[in-house]
Amino acid sequence: MNSSIVLLPGDGIGPEIVEQARLVLAKVAERFGHTFQFSSHQIGGIAIDETGDPLPQATIDACRESAAILLGAVGGPKWDDPSAKTRPEAGLLKIRKELGLFANLRPIKLFDELAEASPLRADIVKGTDILFFRELTGGIYFGESGTSGSGDDETAFQSMTYSAGEVKRIVRMAAQAARGRSNRLTSVDKANVLEPSRLWRRVAAEVMANEFPDVQYDVVLVDSMAMHLINRPSEFDVVVTGNMFGDILTDEASMLPGSLGMLPSASLGDSGPGLYEPIHGSAPDIAGKGIANPLATILAAAMMLRHSLGLTEEAEAIEAAVAAVITDGLRTPDLARGDQSKSVSTDEMGAAVVAKLTV
Ligand code: NAI
Ligand code: MG
Fold it and tell me: Can you give the pTM of this predicted structure?
């Protein structure tokens, strides 16, 4: 089995949090008798500084040969100059494209002990555990666009296109994931208005009826979904949707748990390595202070074991260890809220997760 893992620490807090995730993966390897080969490569601002390119060819080559990729974050004020030829984010967009990563997975799981951090009432958010599948390489963001005319006739357009094949592959991936969870899938579209949504709805229904008759399936319009996420988020399990709807709904949902520091994500293709990362950015305001929350990246490492390496038990062990340190009351400053007296550092949080994995 290919078990080489590429680490792309990137910028800001990236190196600090990726190091903690690496230590957790190394502990898992020791406990379960695996060998992971780690190699670290450049992406983002640091890659621009050292090579002039936010995604050097050496990084692409290493990623292609790997089983999976763990990314910290890219970007920061140092590279924000609008006149710059190249920006750190370009490295991230390019690696997703190079690897054909068409599915973006975002679990939104609330740890009950952190429910008070949510902007919503604890009784509404408790029990929330949703896995979003957002289509990432099609739809309106990649549609034909243009402008014409001037004055009041100045016009701009951007078209939305989906093919049956694009719909099938992401619905299949989401339905497979539903089988490993509570066996429920919700597809979100705007089929009352949009032609690509009508295709999406019909093709998705066919895939579900023919290939996943055992999975409980329903469809929701995107505007209703925006309301349900605030009203009854705990009722959803796996949700699949197109690029733009997924962009907006996953950002809305990411606010439910109340901290960006706990949320991982994955981007997957049909074959080849997946890319795993926290959803937050490089947090330049706290970089180098040793106080970043490493748990989102550690949970991304768990997703990596599950989705790219087929190591379900190992993934669950990491997730249980994270839940246990939260239950023990460990909090990095972003989670500690009013009481900072008991807050722990990045390294202490990572070490606590490692300790929970030691049997
Ligand atoms: P951000 O997510 O980096 O930070 C927002 C706020 O959350 C900050 O106050 C930060 O300190 C805090 N925060 C984020 N992650 C944290 C963690 N693990 N532990 C504790 N606190 C945490 O978003 P922001 O400030 O908008 O962007 C900063 C830089 O990151 C920009 O250059 C942006 O372009 C880049 N960025 C990169 C992303 C990526 O690499 N995937 C995603 C989003 C932003
Ligand atoms: Mg977004």
Answer: 0.94
